[in-house]
Amino acid sequence: MSDRRLRPHTIPQLLAAAPPANAGPPTWDDFAPLADKCAALVKIHDGDYASDKAFAEKFSVPRAEDSVLAMFCDGSASHLIPAGVAQARSGGKPCTIKFRNRRWASSGVAFKKESGDKRWELRGYPGEDLWSNVNAELDGFGRAVALAEKRLLEDLTIEKVYVFSDSMSVLRGILELPSTRRLPNWDLQLLLEVVKALVRLAERVEVRLFWVPSHCGVEGNVQADKAAACARPDKLWPEAYPVQTDNKNKSRKVGYVPATTTTTSTAAAAGPSKHSRPAEKYLRQRREKKKVAEYEGRRAADLAVSNAVFEGY
Known about the structure:
With 313 residues, this protein is an alpha/beta fold. It has a single domain (28-247), classed as Nucleotidyltransferase, domain 5 (2-Layer Sandwich). 43% of the residues lie in helices and 14% in strands. The protein has helices at residues 28-39, 49-58, 83-88, 133-154, 168-175, 177-180, 188-202, 219-230, 233-236, 250-253, 265-270, 277-307, and strands spanning 42-43, 68-80, 103-111, 121-127, 160-165, 206-211, 309-310. The protein has a 7-stranded mixed beta sheet, sandwiched between helices. α1 (28-39) packs across α7, α4 (133-154) packs parallel to α7 and α8 packs across α12. The N and C termini lie close together (9 Å). GO terms for molecular function: nucleic acid binding; RNA-DNA hybrid ribonuclease activity.
């Protein structure tokens, strides 16, 4: 698949891989031959946050040649999709996620072609049928493996592939698959494809899956998060991929403070105001901060889109 840039006028119809005809969802029998091999690739240091962060940072900065290809992957999910839209876009692929709980999602990968490079390569993948953040995170693993396989053909000096993700749920799901023999409530067809790809890659080079703490300044994780967020369908084509904007608990999130009662006759005659004076000031400050944050977010997104190469399905 050749790289191409997604433009705003691109037709917002994402192509999804069709499941095999008359094929049901994968069962444990499909995973059994692969579960142990894939679980052996996961390396988690329970409770050792500092070590995990330091190790990930080591592979985020330019370093001496070490024959390691470090891939950082991430997923992104939108607010909830209107149930009617989710149902209309459901297609023919089986999914256990209820229409009212579905979200637009995407995955992203960040890596450096050479260990001494300063420039990041970003790849973002819009996904119309991922529907949840965990599926987006899982898709990120598959995309990272596919890119790693491509790099192995271009660089014969690569001996190890390290994949970093901030999704502990996906890593633990893969790690505990052989012992629990219970399939998670994810996209099982996608999980099977990712497991197969990981095992296949591990037959060629040493592969390790590591956890990286999220939102703690590790550059590789920051870049992967940026690539995933900018590739989300609702950000690329907001009119074609709408999200819910109403919020039943809005008062709890915008700083609403109930009006305080007063004993003055004038105030009693007029009735209590919607907000007290301190609350009005607080809300005004929140609105101003929100405008600044939205502006900075748009600038960051535009910069990321200009630097990232997106690959569609």
